[in-house]
Amino acid sequence: MRFVLNWGRRYSLWVFNFGLACCAIEFIATSMSRHDFIRFGVIPFANGPRQADLMIVSGTVTDKMAPAVKRLYEQMPDPKYVISFGACSNTGGPYWDSYCVTNGVDQIIPVDVYVPGCPPRPEALLHGIMKLQEKIAAERLSDRYVWSRSHGSQEDSHGTSGGDES
């Protein structure tokens, strides 16, 4: 049962691209015919966060944009995955010491795979997607809810709230 569910999730990733800077162009290049990540079972553009299960954050995350990133992440249904794409989204990049740059998207939302580079090549994103697919194939069904429970959410392992139902 676990194998079938993980196989389905692994090869049907709907991507919500959160392109903030130059790395978004490399994401677009990865979805074009030369690199074509659709062959790996990745659908490049979801209509919005509620239809996506993979968020690719590419570019510089500023302090002003951080609440929007978090809000859109929270709108995604479980299980949800995040790829941090590029040096700016990983650590702040060359702007790490600026007063308005968040030093990594992992300070806002949990990240599953980091893709380094400034700007990273499309091949690096393909490698990151394959690493995420390996991670999905190896996970247990309840693994995706551990992060939300350990960070103060009131969800149990089935994704339902712990409140009274009357």
Describe this protein's structure:
This protein is an alpha/beta fold. The chain has six helices and five strands, in the order H-E-H-E-E-H-E-H-E-H-H. The chain has a five-stranded parallel β-sheet with strand order 2-1-3-4-5. Helix 1 runs antiparallel to helix 5 and helix 2 crosses helix 5 (122-138).
**Approximately how much beta-strand content do the residues carry?**
5-15%
Uncertain regions spanning at least 5 consecutive residues: 152-166
Strand order of the largest sheet: 2-1-3-4-5
Order of helices and strands: HEHEEHEHEHH
Structural class estimated from helices and strands: alpha/beta
Rounded to an integer, what's the Rg over CA atoms? Answer: 16 Å
Care to count the β-strands?
5
> Sheet with the most strands?
5 strands, parallel
Shape: globular
What's the mean pLDDT score?
76
Distance between the termini: 33 Å
